[in-house]
Amino acid sequence: MDINSIILAGGKSLRLGRDKISEKIGSRSLLEQVISRVDDLSRKIIIVTAQGRTFPYLTGDPKVKIVSDIFPGSGSLGGIYTGLVESDSFYNLVVAADMPFLNRPLLEYMVEVSPGYDFVLPRVKNFFEPLHAVYSRNCIGPARTLLERGRRVIIELFDHVKVRFIEAEEIDRFDPEHLSFFNINTENDLEYARKLAEGNIS
Fold first, then answer.
1. CATH at residue 142
2. Full domain range(s) for residue 152
3. pLDDT 10s digits, 145-197
4. What span, in angstroms and rounded, lies between the C-alpha atoms of 78 and 86?
5. Number of structural domains in the chain
6. b/e burial code for range 85-95 (CB count within 10 A of at least 16 → b)
């Protein structure tokens, strides 16, 4: 299916104390790691970030488009809205820029089951992963309405669009350790990711 990927890169990295997506995991920055995981799945890659933020090492890549939040300071929902508005694909894979171990087969599966739905996301027990999801452009209107009301909780979209949950048993077929959802917030997370990438943790 013809899709674009939207990478949310607007976080302030407050817990790490520095720009985490520029940190290296192996030979590439965290953001580059995420791009590499979605590249083959995507016709275009849209990176949503804060106003004035640039990524010089991505300059010149015709597949990558960097855009600024339409609703600054509105969190991940605002980033998702911006990415969907900027995308010319009906279905869009949305991931966070700090998830270095995205699982290609799981992402492909989510894309494959998305026709007929507007919001496809993993659910493990009572936990949802809305930053590892497929969104259709039908989410644009409801997301804008929520943002204009000052609402920023992504799962409030559940009441307004057609949702498909990817359950734990489905996830386990592709990613039994659920590393897809591992994201980096702290120094310990960063160190763990580097060891994992180097194969020093089984």
1. 3.90.550.10
2. 4-198
3. 999 999 999 999 999 999 999 999 999 999 999 999 999 988 899 999 999 98
4. 12
5. 1
6. ebbebbbbbbb
